From TrEMBL:
Protein's UniProt name: HAD superfamily (Subfamily IIIA) phosphatase, TIGR01668
Family annotation (InterPro entries): HAD-like_sf, HAD-SF_hydro_IIIA, HAD_sf, PGPP1/Gep4
Organism: Natranaerobius thermophilus (strain ATCC BAA-1301 / DSM 18059 / JW/NM-WN-LF)
CDD domains with a match to the protein in the record: HAD_BsYqeG-like
Recorded GO MF terms: phosphatidylglycerophosphatase activity
GO CC terms: cytoplasm
């Protein structure tokens, strides 16, 4: 059961404190792609996300993308950000994580895994003895965002109709 608990649970990758990670001795990050960095159907690299990568780089954190998604999508994104990537990863299986560690040239205890899924990212990372960080899936946040906007819309419409 303990293997399913992340060491850290955050709303988004943007809440990740790189300095705190560094203080724990973390020197590398293995990150999931879909719903962690970008939405499922998205491909765009926003300035916001690009800045996040740049900040990690400036803090000397090595990164590698490990995704269960297929080659073309993963490599296309990885090329945009200039990072190594391992697609078709079959997380939570260890093979791709081991490959990523080789890519990063770091031992597991110096690497954090970031992802939105307990049974792939967290379980896989914990099995490897890495620091695990779970984030809320981007799609879910967008869904909540949409719901909130709808509520706000209705609220405003009601106010407007009362006035008229
Ligand atoms: Mg994911």
């Amino acid at each position: 059961m303990k293997l399913l608990y992340p060491d850290l649970y955050l709303e988004s990758i943007y809440n990740l404190d790189f300095d705190k990670l560094a203080n724990k001795g973390i020197q590398g990050i293995i990150t999931d792609l879909d719903n962690t960095l970008i939405a499922w159907k998205d491909e765009e690299l926003t300035d916001y996300l690009n800045n996040w990568f740049q900040e990690a780089k400036s803090k000397k954190l090595e990164m590698c993308i490990v995704s269960n998604n297929q080659n073309s999508r993963v490599h296309k994104f990885a090329e945009k950000v200039g990072l190594p990537a391992i697609p078709n990863a079959n997380k939570p299986r260890k093979k791709a994580f081991k490959k990523a560690l080789q890519e990063l040239e770091l031992p597991p205890e110096k690497v954090a895994v970031v992802g939105d899924q307990v049974f792939t990212d967290v379980l896989g990372g914990n099995r490897m003895g890495m620091f695990t960080i779970l984030v809320v899936p981007i799609d879910e946040k967008e869904f909540i965002g949409t719901k909130f906007l709808r509520l706000l819309e209705r609220f405003i419409l009601r106010k407007v109709s009362k006035q008229s």
